[in-house]
Amino acid sequence: MRAEAKWVRSSARKARLVTDQIRGRSVPEARTILAFSQRAIAREVEKVLNSAVANAESRPDLLLNGDHMVVSAAYADEGPTMKRWRARARGRVARIHKRTCHITVRLVEAPTAPAPPPPDPKAEAAVEEKPKRKPAAKKLAPKKTAARKKTATTTRKKKETRT
């Protein structure tokens, strides 16, 4: 099932930041992420998610439950940009771009994972412990070279002569 909101008054770039967070998550988890998101576009994405869940649950032939669904795709495409003008200094104008986007959310039924097979006792016995590696030798700090010693003593002498 899918739902789409068109001509949402936000840039697609801002909407993609939110849709990337919910892609691949379960519906309850996606709702939680959107409810606690600080971004204003998260409210619009939440409306689209709720609409997609309602679309899925309203189909009597599928008998789907919204809590057992996963967000398979969530994306925001660019919509038309409204161009406006604003007066600037010395009789000039500046163009204002009022961007829009189209938000789409697709849901699929959550796959049911098969039960893992019981462990094989023969396979566990065949696995042997690997010998532990010897600890690496500690690296020592490099020794001071003659050039370093000279610079240290010359700075001391300069400090002593200044006082």
Write the layout of secondary structure elements.
Blueprint: E1 2-8, H1 12-22, H2 27-35, H3 41-57, E2 69-78, E3 82-87, E4 93-98, E5 101-109, H4 121-126, H5 146-162
Please explain how this structure is put together.
The protein is α+β, with helices and mostly antiparallel strands. The protein has a domain at about 1-110: Ribosomal Protein L22, Chain A (Alpha-Beta Complex), CATH 3.90.470.10. It has five helices and five strands, in the order βαααββββαα. The chain has helices at about 10-20, 25-35, 40-55, 120-125, 145-160; strands spanning about 1-10, 70-80, 80-85, 95-100, 100-110. A three-stranded antiparallel sheet has the order 1-5-2. Strand 3 and strand 4 (about 95-100) form a beta hairpin. Helix 2 runs antiparallel to helix 3 (about 40-55). The model has no long low-confidence stretch (mean pLDDT about 85).
